[in-house]
Amino acid sequence: MTTVYSVAGKEPLTAASRAAEVAEMEAELIQGMRALIVGALALLDEGIPLERAAVAGGGVAAGCA
């Protein structure tokens, strides 16, 4: 399996360290998704349409609008 670590030549040496890396990446993904959802709900709560917020913020949707 090719990972960011294997490409950089920094693949974890043991299965335990690999499992720890995977757990850390999963935790970071969950934290990021939670922050995204909380932010989107806050925008909706303030009455700001998500499409307008994405364009104003210069996000990916800005190029699609």
Structure write-up:
- By secondary structure, the chain is mostly helical.
- The protein is 72% helix and 0% strand.
- It is built from 4 helices and no strands.
- The protein is elongated and about 50 Å long.
- The chain starts with a helix and ends with a helix.
Report the total helices. 4
**How does the helix and strand content classify structurally?**
mainly alpha
- Mean pLDDT figure: 77
N-end to C-end Cα span: 37 Å
Using the alpha-carbon principal axes, give the shape: elongated
Strand content: under 5%
Q: How much helix, percentage-wise, in residues?
A: over 70%
Radius of gyration: 18 Å
The SSE string, one letter per element, is HHHH
Oligomeric state of the chains present here: single chain
How many strands, what sense, and barrel or not for the largest sheet?
none
Q: Give me the count of strands.
A: 0
How would you summarize the topology of this molecule?
Blueprint: H1 4-7, H2 15-45, H3 50-56, H4 60-64
Task: Describe this protein with a few key phrases.
mainly alpha, 4 helices, disordered C terminus, 72% helix
Summary of the model, kept short:
The chain has 65 residues and is mainly alpha-helical.
